């Protein structure tokens, strides 16, 4: 699951600081106390207090000075997690000084021993060594890999507590990054929409092949060997592109997708097949990734599965035994091979071959049928996407007289625009990926929609003439990926002055920043904001992960 990389064009000076949000700003603050005070607010805790009950530094290496505590790398501390912040990390503070430590896989209220692994200017990162007392909302994670896998981070937190923490995070970011008051949010911000189905909700999983099964420190030495049995197929260890945790089942994907994974795990290491995993350090080996996608047959609504092998070269005979094994699974209707000869880790091939069945599968969303190819973007939680798109439609308040123009920015395969097209005059969609644009056009045809135009273009590089390519829209939908919108696009929207903007975001930090720009302006660039935030609706699309989606309605003020 990708983490946000915030490019420098997004930075600006704000009167707050958050250790994990520093690159949202133009100037990093030298004083850790300012950072701590702001982190307090971002993480929903009261401002830094000397009476904090958290984090008693049990200093093995140095004696902590209460007023100028700074941890050493390797030092172990007894800590208490106070809250969950951006990227799902637990926030802990050192008693007396309030120095902030960030730790993966700890839950609010949990007391634990941690070791300092990394120091930054105004905070440090800690690895949990041992839980002393768990959080009251701790539950047993159903997945055997949950404590080591880079996919789920909070399976061991009661789902209700997960969504509470996500809602709080959106609120705090909107206040401290977006500069909206708590009072304003009382009427604007809606309670988070939880996800009814918390397992088997993902329609796409991508696993990687690796030459060695990665094991966490505590399991090292258990059953490792030097033959093919040690080859890995699974998910990356958190933070490592070259370490693969072998998984035989993933509780986030569908049941037939797990049957496919099990069938492949069953045979791919057999030495007579001559299959080798790609080694991303030596660049030797054949099998790079395995992508399993679950769609639905438009007529029967039964699941249909696409399997995509990403390989370093085109050798269909080598894949034949795997293809024969999985084509016997009734739900498998498509087996693809993307050949990627580059040394990079991407799963998009330079060439794509159909090894069995058809080259696309189908999915139904808000009554429309979408054809999805191996590399198309499609919302990964279809059921929750229905709810998300309904919220977007509600925000759009379409008149129904077919008079409105919709501009769908970052349109992907056109799904949002197409679900609105039948009730408006015309939809114009913009997207950088050429294949997504051709999928969008094909999906329009498939559904008999002829009032949608999809244009390939980079929205980070729009020129002065961008607005000449379409009539002035009544409704703008903008759904950027995690870095949010480029300043050029913000300026364009402020000049365009469309009556309604619906901002769909998968990163509440950049969302809060962009809402601030659109509503309050960009003082350092002498730009005035001209929108009013009318509603802010967090939606949980991805239980057990730190990801949060929001739908924001902005109206011209
Ligand atoms: C979060 S997805 C949204 C897709 C679509 N709205 C949907 O709901 O399925 C963001 C989309 O923005 C596209 N994108 C990313 N950077 C872009 C850029 N600089 N210019 C245009 N599109 C971009 C991505 O390829 C991706 O399809």
Walkthrough of the structure:
By secondary structure, this protein is an alpha/beta fold. It has three domains: 8-136, OB fold (Dihydrolipoamide Acetyltransferase, E2P) (Beta Barrel), CATH 2.40.50; 186-197 and 381-556, Rossmann fold (3-Layer(aba) Sandwich), CATH 3.40.50.150; 250-364, OB fold (Dihydrolipoamide Acetyltransferase, E2P) (Beta Barrel). 21% of the residues lie in helices and 25% in strands. It is built from ten helices and 21 strands. The chain has helices at 32-42, 159-176, 182-188, 255-267, 316-327, 382-396, 415-421, 434-446, 487-496, 508-520; strands at residues 76-84, 90-93, 100-103, 111-119, 123-133, 204-210, 232-236, 244-246, 287-296, 303-311, 332-339, 351-357, 360-365, 368-373, 405-409, 426-431, 452-456, 475-478, 500-505, 531-539, 549-556. A seven-stranded mixed sheet has the order 8-7-6-9-10-11-12, with helices on one face. Strand 1 and strand 2 form a beta hairpin. Helix 2 runs parallel beside helix 10 (508-520). It is globular, with a radius of gyration of 25 Å. Residues 1-23 and 25-67 have low confidence and may be disordered. It binds S-adenosylmethionine. S-adenosyl-L-methionine binds at residues 379, 410, 431, 479. Belongs to the class I-like SAM-binding methyltransferase superfamily. RNA M5U methyltransferase family.
Strand order of the largest sheet: 8-7-6-9-10-11-12
Q: What's the story with the biggest beta sheet?
A: 7 strands, mixed
Domain count = 3
Bound molecules: S-adenosylmethionine
CATH superfamily of the largest domain: Vaccinia Virus protein VP39
């Amino acid at each position: 699951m990708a983490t946000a990389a915030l490019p420098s064009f997004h930075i600006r000076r704000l009167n707050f600081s958050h250790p994990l949000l520093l690159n949202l700003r133009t100037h990093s603050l030298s004083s850790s106390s300012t950072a701590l005070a702001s982190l307090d607010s971002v993480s929903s805790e009261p401002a830094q207090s000397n009476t904090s009950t958290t984090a008693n530094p049990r200093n093995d290496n140095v004696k902590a000075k209460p007023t100028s505590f700074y941890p050493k790398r390797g030092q172990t501390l007894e800590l208490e997690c106070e809250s969950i912040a951006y990227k799902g990390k637990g926030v802990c503070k050192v008693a007396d000084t309030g120095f902030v430590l960030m730790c993966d896989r700890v839950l609010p209220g949990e007391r634990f021993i941690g070791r300092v692994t990394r120091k930054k200017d105004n905070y440090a990162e800690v690895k949990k060594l041992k839980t002393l007392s768990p959080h009251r909302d701790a539950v047993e994670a159903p997945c055997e890999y949950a404590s080591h896998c880079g996919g789920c981070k909070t399976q061991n937190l009661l789902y209700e507590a997960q969504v509470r923490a996500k809602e709080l995070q959106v609120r705090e970011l909107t206040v401290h990054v977006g500069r909206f008051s708590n009072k304003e949010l009382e009427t604007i911000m809606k309670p988070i929409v939880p996800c009814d189905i918390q397992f088997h909700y993902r329609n796409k999983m991508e696993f990687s092949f690796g030459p060695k099964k990665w094991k966490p420190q505590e399991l090292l030495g258990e059953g490792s060997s030097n033959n093919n049995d040690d080859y890995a197929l699974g998910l990356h260890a958190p933070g490592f592109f070259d370490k693969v945790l072998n998984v035989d089942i993933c509780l986030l994907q569908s049941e037939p997708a797990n049957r496919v994974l099990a069938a492949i795990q069953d045979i791919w290491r057999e030495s007579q097949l001559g299959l080798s995993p790609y080694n991303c350090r030596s660049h030797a080996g054949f099998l790079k990734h395995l992508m399993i996608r679950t769609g639905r047959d438009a007529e029967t609504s039964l699941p249909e599965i696409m399997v995509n092998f990403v390989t370093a070269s085109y050798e269909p005979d080598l894949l034949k035994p795997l293809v024969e094994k999985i084509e016997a699974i009734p739900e498998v209707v498509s087996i693809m091979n993307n050949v990627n000869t580059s040394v990079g880790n991407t799963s998009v091939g330079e060439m794509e071959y159909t090894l069995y069945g058809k080259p696309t599968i189908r999915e139904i969303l808000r009554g429309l049928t979408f054809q999805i190819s191996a590399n198309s973007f499609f919302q990964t939680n279809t059921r929750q996407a229905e709810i998300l798109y309904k919220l977007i439609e509600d925000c759009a308040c379409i008149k129904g007289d077919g008079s409105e123009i919709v501009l769908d920015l970052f349109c992907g395969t056109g799904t949002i625009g197409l679900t609105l097209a039948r009730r408006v005059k015309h939809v114009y969609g913009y997207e950088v990926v050429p294949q997504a644009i051709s999928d969008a056009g094909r999906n329009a045809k498939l559904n008999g929609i002829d009032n949608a135009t999809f244009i390939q273009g980079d929205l980070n590089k729009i020129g002065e003439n961008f607005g000449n390519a379409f009539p002035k829209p009544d409704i703008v939908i903008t759904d950027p990926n995690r870095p949010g919108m480029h300043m050029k696009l913000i300026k364009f929207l402020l000049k365009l002055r469309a009556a309604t903007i619906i901002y769909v975001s998968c990163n509440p930090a950049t969302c809060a920043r962009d809402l601030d720009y659109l509503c309050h302006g960009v003082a350092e660039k002498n730009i005035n904001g001209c929108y009013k935030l009318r509603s802010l609706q967090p939606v949980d699309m991805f239980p057990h992960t730190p990801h949060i989606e929001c739908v924001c309605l902005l109206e011209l003020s």
